[in-house]
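Q: My labmate handed me this sequence with no annotations at all. I'd like to see what the chain might look like in three dimensions before we decide whether it's worth expressing. Could you predict it?
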Amino acid sequence: MKKKRGLSVILAGVVLLCVLIVCYVALLKVNSSEEETTEEETAQEEVAAIASDDISTLTFEAGDQTLTFQKGEDSWTLEGQEDFPVDASKVDSAASYLASIKADRTLTDVEDPGEYGLDDPVNVIEVVKTDGSTEKITVGDKNSSTGNTYICLNDDTSMVYTTGTDLGNAFSGGLYNYAESESYPTITSSTISKIAVKKDSNSYTLTNNGKSSTGWYVEGSDKDKQEADSTQAGTLQSTVAGISFAGYYDYNCTDWAAYDLEKPKMTLTVDYTEEVETDSTDDAESDSEANTDDTEDSSETTTQAVDKELVLYVGNVNETDGNYYVRLGDSSELHGISQASLDTLLNGKAFDYWKTSIDSMTISDLDHLDVTYQGTTYTLKRVVTEEKVEKDESKDTDADADADSEDADEEETKTVTTYYVNDQEADSDAFTAFYRAAAGMTCQSRLEENTNKGDAELTLSYYGTDGSEITISYTPRDSSFYVMEDQDGNCGLVNKMNVKDLIDAFLTLTEDEK
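A: Here is what I predict for the chain of 514 residues:
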C-alpha cells in the first residue's frame, strides 16, 4: 500500500510540473505578442507632407465660412475678397502644420467613419499644389484617451489614421483670425497725464496736476473740480493702460450706427507720452572732422518723449462674445474690447475719485489754529524766535583770542520754537502729537451729500500766514462713524475710533486749561 501511495504522489507532481511548464510557455508567448503590438502601435508613419512652398491654394473651414487663400510670392490673398487684409504670418502658421503629419496608428477596413467623427468632420483642409496636384485631409474627432486626432486622406474613409498633430486647433476660429489688424496703442500707466470719460451722464476727467496735494484733480459734468485720491487715480491709470482688443469684426465698417458707434455710449480720451527714437548729430564732432577724408558717422539714435492722444469710442455689446464694439479714432476697423476692461470706466463718476484724505495745513504755514470742542474754542499757535546764545568765557581758547575783532563782535543765535494754547505755553510733544493726528485723518468713504443735521463735536479752523483758511468739522453720525465736512461742503465718513483718538490727543494737550 505504501508503494502505491508513493507512486501516486510522484505522478501527481509530474503532472503539476507539466501544467506549470505549459503555463509559463503560454505566458512568454503572450508577453512577446504584446511587445510586438506595442511596437506596431508606437511606430509612426508619415502619411502627409505638404511643404508651404508647394502650396498654391489652401482651403479650410473657419467658423461658418469656407475660406480659400491663394499664395503669392510673399503674401496670401483671400479668394473673392482680394482687398481683405490677410495676415500672411497667421496663414503660414496654419499651413506649417501640414509639413509633416505622422500617424500613430492606422485603422484599416473601416466600415463606419462616423465612429471617428469623419461623417461630420471638424474641418476639411484642401490643398492645390503648385504642380497642379491636390491633397485633402478630413479632420474628425479626438480620441478621448490619447488626445490624438482621427483623420482620413483624399476621401478614403476605409483607412483612418490617428495623429498627434492637432489640425482641429491649427485651423480654427473665424475669418478675422487670419486678418491683419491695426494695433491698440501700447500705453504705460506712468505716462498718462489725463483721462477723460464722456458719457450721456456722469462724465468725468482726471488730470495730473502738480498743484494738487495728491497730484491729480477730478472734474465732473458740473465742472466741480476736486482733488483726486492718488490711489484711485493710479488704479484708473492701470485700468486704462491694460485695455486691449479682444475681437476683430470688420476691416472696413461703413455702418457705425449698427453698433451704436455713430453716437457712442462712451468716448474715452487719454493724453500720454511715448518714447520715440530720433537721430541726433554731434555738430561739434562733425565740424572738427569735416576736412578729413575719412569722416565717421557722428549721428546716434536717442529717444525723446512725444505727446500722444488716444480716442476710443464704445458702442453696444456683441451678443455672441460679450465684447463691447469699439472704434479707435477715425479708423475704419471695427473691434471688440471685453466688458471687464471697460465697465469700471462706464460705471464710474467723478465722486468715485475724490480724495479720502482730509485737508490740513503744513505747520510751517500756520498762523494759528482754532479748535472748538463741545462749544468751547481754543487757539493754538506756534511761535518761532531767534535768541542770543550766551558764550561761556571759561571755554575761550587761544584761537578765539586771535579771531578777527569783526567776527568776535558777531552775536550767535539759535532758533527757538514755542507752542501755545490760549497764550499759555504748551507741551511741545503734546502739541505736535495732536497736530500730526489731525493732519493724518482720512475718510473711510466719501459722501455725495451730508444728510447728518447734528451739531459738530469738534471743529478745526486753520488760518495760514498767507491768509488762507481751512475748516474741518466732525459730527457724530452713529455708533461707528462721524461725518467730516470741510469749508466747501465736501463730506465723508470717518471711523469713530479715529476721531476719538484725535479728541484724546487734544484733551491731553489742553488738560492744563481746565
